[in-house]
Write a structure and sequence with these properties.
The chain is of the alpha/beta class. The protein has helices spanning 20-41, 66-75, 80-84, 98-110, 127-141, 161-167, 181-191, 195-204, 218-233, 261-274, 301-313, 318-325, 332-344; strands at 46-51, 88-94, 118-123, 148-152, 173-179, 237-244, 250-258, 281-283, 316-317, 348-351, 364-367. It has an eight-stranded mixed beta sheet with strand order 3-2-1-4-5-7-6-8, sandwiched between helices. Strands 9-11-10 form a three-stranded antiparallel beta sheet.
Length: 371
């Protein structure tokens, strides 16, 4: 796959500390791939999972890293055999640190013989150079890239925006990026004063649009940064979750970029699973949803108010509301529950409808006027 390199892991202590950040990241990958694998395999003969900085494969405490999490998700999938009967799944792992790469290969080998239609391509290479070469070859030969889920989890905050942009020109590619926000935020703050840092930021954002973020406060800047990444790669949807430290300051942001409505819906579902009480953020000290004895429920009052406001403007078809809620943080299930609740409470009603009160029947919903 390329000439071996030895790009040193700049945060080797990471492998000795497995906290809730890593748990949430891996839960999101696992949950998303559980839905992504069967959906894509039913339409295409080949799909790709690509890990740009694959790491060692296992933390010191025995917890698996993203490459093994991804592999196990497919291996343990309830539809695995059916999925692999007509689809090849390629796992491409890049790792620049030679020591990490050797440990990763050992962990892959420990899994034993894999089914025939699971292919692994692991290489000790600079992932960005390798991706650049592969993209150039596809572009020159005018070939399509198989549907791919690309996990970008860099050592540090540097990643070339031009590569991400070229990847997303293939409309069946989705990006899942670990944005090292604390360091990137500091770089943006100082970038306009330091020529070398400005060049680095120009590379990350494939231009100097990052300068528009400099005067903003930290929260506005983080939201603006996610919007810049979305616009840079021309993605239809950007879904992200804040990873916050003990002082509630944002340390990382996990950003999902896709051009497909189903991908947006699936990632929102996955984030709600790891943040069951609402809000797209997780804490370094937080518990995963599985560890709650009584799982918290989201506060759906803002969604109720949103529905009432929309229906106060004019009647809407149920499916129209489902389309509109895709751009919000709530799940479609949340909207369906709220619509049923508002009708039970006599706040809204339906017309032009036969059969069961259900979104598939798409009744027209309207707000009941209070005399």
């Amino acid at each position: 796959m390329g000439k071996s390199v030895d790009l040193k892991d700049t945060t080797p202590g990471y492998w000795d500390n497995y906290n809730n950040f890593q748990r949430v990241k891996h839960d999101l990958i696992r949950n998303y791939l559980n839905g992504w694998f069967p959906k894509l395999s039913s339409w295409h003969g080949k799909i790709v999972y690509f890990d740009t900085h694959a790491g060692r494969g296992k933390h010191s405490g025995g917890q698996y890293g993203s490459p093994i999490v991804a592999l196990q998700t497919l291996m343990e999938h309830s539809f695995r055999d059916r999925l692999l009967s007509n689809c090849e799944v390629l796992f491409a792992f890049c790792e620049g640190d030679k020591g990490n790469f050797e440990k990763l290969v050992a962990e892959i080998d420990a899994l034993g013989k894999l089914p025939d239609n699971i292919k692994i391509n692991a290489a000790n290479v600079d992932c960005y150079k390798q991706l650049g070469k592969a993209l150039l070859r596809l572009e020159e030969e005018n070939k399509e890239l198989a549907p791919a889920f690309v996990f970008v989890d860099p050592y540090g905050f540097k990643m070339p925006g031009s590569i991400l942009k070229r990847l997303m020109t293939f409309k069946r590619v989705e990006l899942f990026i670990n944005v090292i926000w604390r360091e990137l935020n500091m770089a943006i703050s100082n970038g306009s004063k330091q020529e070398g840092m400005a060049k680095t930021l120009d590379s990350i954002f494939d231009g100097n649009v990052w300068r528009d973020l400099v005067p903003l406060n930290s929260e506005e800047r983080s939201e603006g940064c996610m919007a810049l990444f979305k616009d840079m790669v021309d993605a239809q949807w950007a879904t992200y979750i804040y990873m916050r430290g003990k002082n509630h300051a944002t340390r990382y942001m996990l950003l999902h970029l896709t051009n497909h409505d189903d991908g947006r819906d699936l990632m929102k579902d996955c984030i709600w699973k790891v943040c069951p009480d609402g809000g797209f953020h997780a804490s370094v000290t937080g518990l995963s949803a599985d560890e709650y004895l009584i799982k918290p429920e989201p506060d759906l009052r803002p969604l109720q108010n949103w529905v009432i406001k929309r229906l106060g403007e004019r009647p809407y078809r149920w499916q129209e509301l489902l389309q509109d809620v895709r751009s919000k943080i709530w799940r479609q299930k949340h909207l369906n529950d709220v619509v049923r609740s508002l009708r039970r409470d006599g706040i809204i009603d339906k017309r032009d409808h036969k059969g069961k009160f259900h979104p598939c029947n798409n009744p027209e919903l309207f707000l009941i006027e209070v005399e």
